[in-house]
Write a structure and sequence with these properties.
151 residues, alpha/beta, 4 strands, globular
């Protein structure tokens, strides 16, 4: 921090909650915050349905961040592929009690596993529907992160 003049900005994105918070008691192999396991991967992962993320954000993470005086920390939701970004944005941003804690939505720039359709239009639609939120490419093809709106 001293080398940066106390201006160091970090982007942190956990791929999984702690094992004790998951139904499979494992940070690997998918799992879920609830009883219905929907994915199995070999890396740190957890399936968050849009409603789950919204619930956690508005009832736990957001209020705790405010309570701890961390209101200036930007929260980015989603941080996944572009195919479902519209549904995720609608679920979270259309709920004022959740949306008030969110700075923006993250997405991955790559997405050729979905039949070759890159789905850039989904990012554009989120931009039009929620002009007060930032879209950030959290995994761009180069080392420089792409931010689509700066506030």
């Amino acid at each position: 921090m001293a080398a940066s003049g106390n201006r160091l900005k970090l982007f942190a994105s956990p791929w999984s909650p702690p094992a004790f918070m998951k139904d499979n008691n494992d940070m690997l192999h998918g799992g879920h915050l609830r009883a219905d396991v929907m994915a199995v991967q070999r890396w740190e992962s957890c399936v968050y349905q849009a409603g789950d993320e919204r619930y956690f954000l508005k009832n736990h993470l957001g209020p705790v961040m405010v309570q701890q005086g961390l209101r200036d920390v930007n929260i980015i939701v989603w941080d996944h592929n572009r195919d479902l970004i519209i549904q995720r944005a609608q679920t979270i941003f259309d709920d004022p009690e959740a949306a008030k804690y969110v700075w923006g939505i993250g997405f991955h720039w790559y997405e050729d596993w979905s039949g070759g359709q890159q789905m850039y239009g989904n990012v554009a639609l989120v931009n039009r529907l929620y002009p007060d939120k930032v879209e950030i490419s959290s995994r761009p093809p180069s080392i420089q992160t792409v931010v689509f709106k700066a506030r």
